Amino acid sequence: MKKRIQDKLLVQRGKGQFKDQLKSYLVRCKADTPPFFRKMRTIGVFVAAAGTAVISSPVALPSAIVAIGGYFIIGGAVASAVSQAAIPSMGNFDKSTD
Question: Which residues contact 95 (CB under 8 A, 6 or more apart)?
């Protein structure tokens, strides 16, 4: 069972060394995301949207607030990307997908 899961997560090439990490990441992103990380992904999108709204506001804002908006965009984007790549524990990996 573990071998099958590893084959889904990583592409094996050569003498037992796992290569092609980009393909592994894409497989992880297509897998089901646990409920906690779905919530974190949604929160990350909202934080990034709030930062975008602050930066693109038509009113002149102090530079400190605009800088904080930029940090919100970065933080929200990172939280969303990391949450999307999270998968259930190895024992609960989606068994129906081949």
Answer: none
Amino acid type, 72: F
What is the SS3 assignment for 11? Answer: strand
pLDDT at residue 56 in the model: 93
| Per-residue tokens: 66 | 């605009």
In the numeric block, which tokens belong to residue 98?
């081949």
Number of domains in the chain: 1
- Helix H or strand E encompassing 12: strand 11-13
CA 15, chain centre distance (Å): 30
Q: Give pLDDT < 70 ranges for the chain.
A: 1-22, 89-98
Residue type, 26: L
Q: Which structural domain, as residue segments, surrounds residue 27?
A: 2-92
Nearest 10 degrees: Cα torsion 90, 1, 19, 97: -80
The DSSP bridge pattern shows strands 11-13 and 17-19 to be antiparallel
Question: Residue 47: inside a domain, yes or no?
Answer: yes
